Amino acid sequence: MPEPIRILLVDDHPLMLMGIRSMLEAKLGIEVAGTASDGFQALSKASELRPDVMMLDVVMPGMDGIELARRMRAEMPDVALLVLSSDTSIATLETLLGIGIDGFLPKTSDEATMLSAIRSVAAGYEFFGTDIARLIERISLAKKASDSMFTPRELDVIRLSCRGLQYKEIAGELGIKYLTVVTIKNNIFRKLGINNTVELVLYAIKKQLISL
Amino acid sequence: MPEPIRILLVDDHPLMLMGIRSMLEAKLGIEVAGTASDGFQALSKASELRPDVMMLDVVMPGMDGIELARRMRAEMPDVALLVLSSDTSIATLETLLGIGIDGFLPKTSDEATMLSAIRSVAAGYEFFGTDIARLIERISLAKKASDSMFTPRELDVIRLSCRGLQYKEIAGELGIKYLTVVTIKNNIFRKLGINNTVELVLYAIKKQLISL
DNA sequence: TTATCGATACAGAATTATATGTATTGGTGC
DNA sequence: GCACCAATACATATAATTCTGTATCGATAA
Known about the structure:
Mean pLDDT of chain A: 85
Oligomer: homodimer
Distance between the termini of chain A: 53 Å
């Protein structure tokens, strides 16, 4: 019989910890090595216990799951990171992928999915459910589409416009003439079929071209 | 020995259900009568089982916790509603209070808090943790402050402006002269110390005067 | 009663934004 | 090389916005 997969659970919800624990308890080949309820605790427990897999929540008080994942990758890259989250937003997923997590599980996943995710990442494979994979695909497509929809200069002007800067101020900021800003903004309006800056702001927020 | 408190658990996360169940299992005087993973299932199980308390999540696919709470209040007002959520946003809390739930628990609550919450609502009392009570207080204060900061007409103009409407359009919508809209908007700008509509939009979003 | 203040309403001038047209540059495919 | 297109740049004309000032009404306090 092979060594069991040793897991460190990180979640600020005691109920989630209990739920995962009771789900994994009876499973052969898997052992819950420990639990932590915030990022700092997780780091110290990880260096102490050296688990094979860290299952971590994203939303946590203090150091959140994103910062935790970043540090784990830097300090203990041999621990597989399986992110467990109910937040499947664009920004979060992209950030996590950038950090290089090994897998992502929605909290709504059933038992079988969770087990196979754990086994996958412990074995060195990635695990992203089909819906997540599809979401990633859709996100990157949408991002490319809206990126290629605007030239770099246009994106500059969009971002500054959406922070409340006026034509003259944008020109000064970018080191171009006022009239050039006029052209660029007109092009943006034409592309989007809108005709004032407020609508541009609303568009940019919806498409996450700017952050609030 | 008195009758046990019978609870119906509603959450779309299998792990949460398992966690709560394993927490309550050994407790004297409490019995998990059943579980449901969405609103519709919850309604049918509730009418079948007639529990004393329904513990329900807010975020769920299909019928969410808010709609579920509304229907439960209308159809089975004798079932105490204890909302369990990680979302403690302004809007959600206000809506839930308006529906008349009996208690609210953050998912981060510890075991002791959950037990006393269950016992409180089962006994006919309300349960809102001190932090939630404080949040409600703060919210209503902030709301009053920002409400009284603007006259009704100003709020009309703010909302329409933030949807991209121009002065003429706003005038038409409100049935007043273009020049009156000018004055109202100027007053808004002066009050906020800003000088264009984009900054107004950003302000309104931050203060939740408008919803995206 | 009168004085005052805030909300609402309107006007003219000054500023800014938007629509439309044109020129230059650099890259791409023929 | 040449035609073509996209990106950048600038200009003029028109429209919308913002600034400053004024007037009326109703409530409220001296």
